[in-house]
Write a structure and sequence with these properties.
- The protein is an all-alpha fold and 277 residues long.
- The protein has a single domain, classed as CDP-alcohol phosphotransferase transmembrane (TM) domain (Four Helix Bundle (Hemerythrin (Met), subunit A)).
- The protein is globular and about 60 Å long.
- It starts with 23 loop residues before the first helix and ends with a helix.
Length: 277
């Protein structure tokens, strides 16, 4: 008869299975992504409380953190599929839902149901944009030069540019405080729809992933001066700078398209020359 409690020597106890420790290089980028998500959600709450300045600042901080997490992951060799999916979900909330809700509480609520439909369209455009980006990452036939370009306006850029009506209002160029002018709100609605279209369009925009990877020695000191001046202006005149950067970014889109077509034509000529050899 088998003993119910067989004898055993001390130290022969069965060891419980333990999970392997996760390297910090994998955790840090995801923590930055979660901070970006929290910043976007906080911006939505601040908009509900009618604190527009802080709400815009929260979206701006979320965009900075979103730009950092990918770079930190690549520098620390901590990229993972989990991180990519988490980044897309955080981007949808921070740059799709939060800016749309800020605009709704800012002025779109005066349009009632059409205003809410515009909010839904912008959020859906952001979701479609991010889904298409995730599919493009897995494309093995994508040329190397296309990695410097996004297909359509990226979600963080869409979030910052779509808030242009709020920037103009905060610097005194929008409708007066405490009132909503119906005509200007309609113009804002068309502008939001334009940005939503840009996000889901096939128009190429510069990605800037290789920006700053190599800097000439002669440009180091001027670069330091420019960066310090930019940060100082952004800290002292944040909304004026955001409005200016938004206008400059929109004005540069035709130049981005031209550069993309030049590279595509060069790639086609190289491919044609290779087939004829």
């Amino acid at each position: 008869m088998t003993e119910l409690f067989p004898p055993f020597e001390p130290g022969d106890e069965p060891k419980t299975r333990r999970f392997k420790p996760v390297p910090m290089r994998l955790l840090l980028p995801n923590l930055i992504t979660l901070l970006s998500l929290c910043s976007g959600l906080t911006g939505m709450r601040l908009a509900i409380e009618n604190k527009l300045e802080m709400a815009v600042a929260a979206i701006f901080v979320a965009a900075i953190l979103d730009g950092l997490d990918g770079r930190v992951a690549r520098m620390m060799k901590g990229t993972s599929r989990f991180g990519a999916e988490l980044d897309s979900l955080a981007d949808f909330v921070s740059f799709g839902v939060a800016p749309a809700m800020i605009l709704y509480f800012f002025s779109l609520h005066s349009l009632h149901s059409p205003g809410w439909i515009i909010v839904l369209l912008f959020a859906c455009a952001s979701a479609l944009r991010l889904a298409r980006f995730n599919v493009a990452i897995d494309d093995p036939d994508r040329p190397a030069w296309q990695k410097d370009f996004f297909v359509g306006m990226p979600a963080p850029a869409g979030a910052l540019t779509v808030l242009l009506p709020v920037y103009l209002h905060l610097i005194g160029l929008g409708h007066p405080q405490g009132s909503v002018v119906q005509g200007s709100t309609v113009l804002e609605a068309f502008y939001i729809l334009f940005i939503a279209f840009m996000m889901i369009s096939r128009i190429p925009t510069y990605a800037g992933k290789t920006l700053g990877s190599r800097v000439p020695r002669s440009a180091v000191i001027p670069l330091f001066i420019v960066v310090v001046a930019f940060v100082a202006l952004l800290a002292t005149m944040m909304f004026e700078m955001l409005a200016l950067l938004t206008l400059v970014y929109l004005a540069c889109i035709p130049l981005m398209v031209r550069r993309y077509r030049q590279l595509a034509a060069e790639d086609s000529r190289v491919a044609a020359a290779g087939t004829t050899v």
